[in-house]
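note to self: dont lose this again. the chain is below, predicted strucutre after it. 411 aa total, dont forget to put it in the shared folder this time
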Amino acid sequence: MPAPRVARDAWVILACAFVTFSVSAALLHAYTVYLVAFIDEFRWSRADTSLAYAVSQLVSGFSAPLVGMLVDRLGPRRMVLIGGALLIVGLVATAQISALWQLVVLYGVVMTLGANCLGLLVFVPLLSRLFERRRGMAISILQSGNGGARAVSAPAAQFAIDAIGWRTTLLVEAGMLAALILPLAAAFRRVGRAGAPAAPAAAAVSPSLLVTRPWTLIEAMRTPHFWLLFLVYLCTGLGSFFVSLHQLAFAVDQGFDPFYAAEVLGLGSLLAIVGVIATGILSDHIGREWSAILAYLISIVGVVCALFIDRPDQHLLLWLHACLFGITWGARGPAITAKTADLFAGPQLGAILGVITVGTGLGSAIGSWGAGWIFDVSGSYRLAFALSIVSYAIGCVAFWALRRPPARRRA
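---
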């Protein structure tokens, strides 16, 4: 296959992956708005209302190895169909809930499994092979869909809930997804046929892929680098979710109008598209470590801004928090994921990423539920936000320790 055709097919695969991931991320991120609606209607505590999201993060992390194996067997088209079906069922059923356990099962398990089937683990190994020389850039473009989806989903969901109620909004989301899922799956079927030869062709012009013996999961787990990456994923999940799930509730507690706060936080999240792509490209030029540490530091400043908010007239601090935290939402992802691919390249990269991603699930679950529990005990999110800063700082140190490649036994 001619080189221009190979390059074009690689970009088509990236575009399809971006759209698919963005759709699933938008549906899951809308929970931050639904959390406020659930508290108003059911009078659940903050910790109880956060439970479904915490379970979601655990399921996301612990199901990652399974998703990694399934995509190797089934391919992206079937994964898109399975994931879309699970999300549609979850949305329709959630619109009928009357008890907390139902929300935990439907959102925490069913919808999360569906989103995982449309997520990064399905696409990152393929993109890492197709864009070996620009791996950071390709992964950053894919992951930028997370920030864009988060930016759009919060204000859109808040507007819809105010207009038609949260139950009807869920049904509308299910209908929109049903209209999108078949065209997305069909696109992957066509891309799959056209793009299948692309990986070998790319490998043919990338000698490094041929001379480096690929890593196995067991071999990777015997290195300290694997566990440092696990710690980085864990701390990043903690730092992000001690804050993100409860941002809107925190702003409303300080006296800000819910729709205004959702709009500000949503616009801040929109900057994640720029932040993710910028750090991904930077990671290809200045190194994964420096780009990730820069993103950590900006996030820390954003959380500090939130700690100083105590009145509803402090609009500048709210905007600074939204923009600084938002622009780095997911911005460490391309550097961390690309670093994993740099260190542990090979056909088992999906499985390696899947196991390491368990750290993200644990950190995100503990952070999202822990922030709600801290509020219920203390009446404030400020300790949770301080723990976010500590987690990010530990993540910086752990990532810096990865700058030298791991030693390995010769075959």
